[in-house]
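This entry is listed as follows:

___
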Amino acid sequence: MSELFELAKINGLELKNRFIRSATYEAMAGLDGRVTDQLLLYMANLAQGELGLIISGHTHVTLEGQAGPRQMGIYSDEMIEGLQRFTATVHENGGLIAAQLAHAGLRAIGRNEYAPLSPSDLFAGSLKVASEMTVDDIARTVKAFGDAGQRAVAAGFDAIQIHAAHGYLLSQFLSPHYNTRDDLYGGSLENRARFLIQVYEEIRQRVGTSFPIMVKINSEDFLPGGITTEEVLKVCQMLEESGIDAIEMSGGTLESEELIPSRVGTATSAEREVYYRKAAEAFRKKKIAVPLILVGGFLSLYIAEEVVASGLADFVALSRALVREPHLVKRWAAGDRKKATCISCNKCFLTLAMPEGLYCAVEKKARRK
């Protein structure tokens, strides 16, 4: 049995293997973010796939931070009862579940009176489309992340992941492409990382030292003037010093011209599966001791095995492959080593506007024939 299928731990949380479901937006919650039976059925099936850990779709910590319709919310104590059903469903089906806490920032859909917030004012021509956060806004949002962390514990989640990647709010503050502030939250890397560190410290203070807290971060933005791998590694060192329990490395934003987080058409090119290999190698050279979760195009078991066996990463995270095959890891563990059937076409993105929410459009079309 390969090292991938051995027990592993993140701050005492024992995982049955080193496969992690990377946070994936399901678009199956209610319009107010509450858990639905549809979402529970989806998570039950995913949990039966024998993953070491499932990370929830991004859960918004404030109403103004909502990224998309039918996104699961964790912004109010009224959500806890539904979230308890959510975690119980995963546990009853043999899985572990982490809550990804998120705020969309300038990417927010802007509900009613809530206008999108941003590190700096953003204009489309003469129209302001996002407003620079005040220091009070930042303090309020730090508290909202802390409140959400407490709710995650009360709801029975096994871990928390802070979403600081893909051009969402905390990623926006890290990136000089978005962040042009000249106060304590802008300019130097230490200032740009201050918001993220404060969010981590607030959550840690609320949940205690023994509860696993992870972060998802860009290896780089792939944007003009965006954050670079060199800077990201310094942020990782700051997080290590603060006590973070694991770091998931991703990359890109929806605005990146080529290297967006979910890239199209890589399925036939095995050597391109590990999108962030060079960044992971640089992470290791810095001797950062925090467990590294690597996401990005994994479709082949032998490549995932090589990444873990070589020490490049401690855990392998999957997303689109599990949309097509929720039981992919179970299949691999049973000895069927064939490559994932996902073809990286991104047509699953189009399903997020459908009543069914997230599904593999290619598979569904094939079933209809």
